[in-house]
Amino acid sequence: xxxxxxxxxxxxxxxxxxxxxxxxxxxxxxxxxxxxxxxxxxxxxxxxxxxxxxxxxxxxxxxxxxxxxxxxxxxxxxxxxxxxxxxxxxxxxxxxxxxxxxxxxxxxxxxxxxxxxxxxxxxxxxxxxxxxxxxxxxxxxxxxxxxxxxxxxxxxxxxxxxxxxxxxxxxxxxxxxxxxxxxxxxxxxxx
Length: 191
Known about the structure:
- The protein is an alpha/beta fold.
- The protein has a single domain (2-181), classed as Maf protein, CATH 3.90.950.10.
- The chain is 30% helix and 26% strand.
- Helix 3 (83-93) runs antiparallel to helix 4 (128-136).
- It is globular, with a radius of gyration of 17 Å.
- The N and C termini lie close together (10 Å).
- It is an enzyme of class 3 (hydrolase).
- The record marks 11, 68, 150 as: Important for substrate specificity.
């Protein structure tokens, strides 16, 4: 089976490459702003599902779509669009705990699976000048919650409970197990 990553996320691409999957990247054009939902798990499920609907599957293909959000104090934080929004998000999270939610949809002509993962992240309490400087790097703007745990955003993280890779954007352990059920394996596995 041929794996298709239907995502423009460089982090999801890197994670699948890290565990030696061969795949094609296909970006989907889904307007995420049209999906309004107050529950983070329901939101990421709906978005991952909708992204999967935007892809036409061939008989020999398995398509993977995903979405990630940050949940804090009843609010859902997606990707910041402006400097002010990024500073506001990181200031809210500063010194506090939040949850990172990811849903992954894996589908073929015969099977369709939707999985979710939540990871709890606690931030250190850092000076405002650190937040401002980090935002100035440009790193926050394509990441849910405005930080990358795999980049300089790691300096905010005091501890996590759960799957590190989920915070990056793909709960790798669950994804690998699920892909195995679709007969999709890393490139070093002989079919």
